[in-house]
Specification:
The chain is an alpha/beta fold. Helix content is 46%, strand content 21%. The chain has 3 domains: 8-37 and 173-263, Rossmann fold (3-Layer(aba) Sandwich); 39-170, 3-Layer(aba) Sandwich (Rossmann fold); 267-358, Arc Repressor Mutant, subunit A (Orthogonal Bundle), CATH 1.10.10.10.
Length: 362
């Protein structure tokens, strides 16, 4: 069984969300798409006039802060008929990217990278430029969508003339029912992990969900997987629990990190003498896999964790439905679960009408 099979993962990205969803679904994870960032293009007239000014007076140095900004700006320039002029301007300047992904985007556009920071931090760029010296130089800064006022000001303090090039802005989306779904999934322990590929995504989730969501995520032991240390730092500052960070800063690395952490959460034991692996909503009995509904998963996990103790129908109803439901509802769900257990169903025992116990070994 794939380490990601059976687990439920929420994806907060907007850009490259489809790629991330496909990576997870190919490994049999269940995905909730809850974008917490909205990308908005700046007014084309502003970007075009800034671009024309840079062509007329080329910069000595160009700082690129994100791959999306690089690709968005250059593609816009070509659509205006300014592509050749922009490329000549860029080729005549020293080019400094923030991080490996931005460097990759530059190389993909046919540009040479003069220097690359060891980390994805803008602080590293400021330190390098302070050591290099930029006094009297004209520096174009391609913005990454979030507030970079402090960075531009730091370069001005070093004596540079700074031209900011805004391509897009990152903002929080309108109130989304997806956040309510996320809150409910966490309360019912149906959510296992959330992925973040930007600082804004982490901050917006915490702000939009509020303290109630943060508390539910912590109680449910949800993993918050982040691409890179900057995103992880923002997630921690926002109060998100279970933060883990992928190195290197790649989408594939984050998926691999998630597989490692979630795979270790799977439970292995014996029922009716048969080997069983319970992994989120996926159950393997003697090598044969079945899918569990969220309620069935909660009931089975609770009874397996009880170590053979009897669990009352009332307790089970509060765990699986977050409220008291009729005993008949619990009975129907347990019977469906028994059917899925197949030859191991005899291990799910009824105890004098009081409740149920799961006879497990290991």
């Amino acid at each position: 069984m794939d380490p990601l099979a059976g687990w439920t993962v929420a994806v907060t990205a907007e850009r490259r969300a489809r790629e991330q969803v496909e990576l997870l679904q190919r490994r049999d994870a269940t995905v909730l798409l809850v974008p917490t960032v909205r990308t908005e293009r700046v007014d084309d007239s502003l970007l075009r006039s800034t671009t024309a000014a840079l062509i007329e007076r080329p910069p000595d140095l160009w700082v690129a802060s994100s791959a999306a900004a690089v690709q968005g700006w250059i593609s816009s320039a070509w659509s205006w008929g300014l592509g050749p002029s922009v490329m000549r301007t860029l080729c005549g300047a020293s080019v400094l990217p923030r991080g490996a992904s931005t460097a990759g985007a530059l190389v993909g556009e046919g540009l040479d990278v003069d220097w690359q920071a060891a980390t994805d931090t803008l602080d590293g760029l400021v330190d390098h430029l302070a050591e290099r010296g930029v006094t009297g130089e004209r520096v174009a800064v391609l913005l990454h969508g979030s507030d970079m006022t402090w960075f531009a000001e730091a370069l001005r303090q070093l004596g540079a003339e700074v031209i900011e090039v805004p391509v897009y802005r990152l903002s929080a989306p309108e109130p989304d029912p997806g956040l309510t779904r996320l809150r409910d999934a966490a309360a019912l322990r149906e959510l296992d992990a959330i992925t973040f590929t930007s600082q804004a995504a982490a901050r917006n989730l915490a702000l939009g969900g509020g303290p109630e969501l943060l508390e539910r995520l912590a109680t449910a032991g949800v993993i918050c997987a982040c691409v890179g240390p900057l995103t992880a730092r923002a997630a921690l500052a926002a109060g998100l629990p279970g933060v883990v960070v992928a190195e290197p800063n790649r989408l594939g690395s984050m998926i691999g990190l998630l597989a490692d952490h979630l795979g270790r959460r799977g439970r292995e034991f014996e029922m009716a003498g048969l080997p069983v692996r319970l992994q989120g909503a996926r159950l393997a009995i003697d090598g044969k896999q079945v899918r569990l509904t969220p309620r069935e998963r909660t009931l089975l996990e609770a009874m397996a964790a009880a170590g053979g103790a009897v669990m009352s129908k009332r307790t089970l109803s509060q765990l699986a439905w977050a409220t008291a439901v009729s005993e008949h509802t619990v009975e129907v769900t347990v019977n469906r679960l028994r059917a899925k257990l197949g030859p191991a169903a005899v291990a799910l025992e009824t105890s004098n009408r009081r409740g149920y116990r799961l006879a497990v070994a290991g």
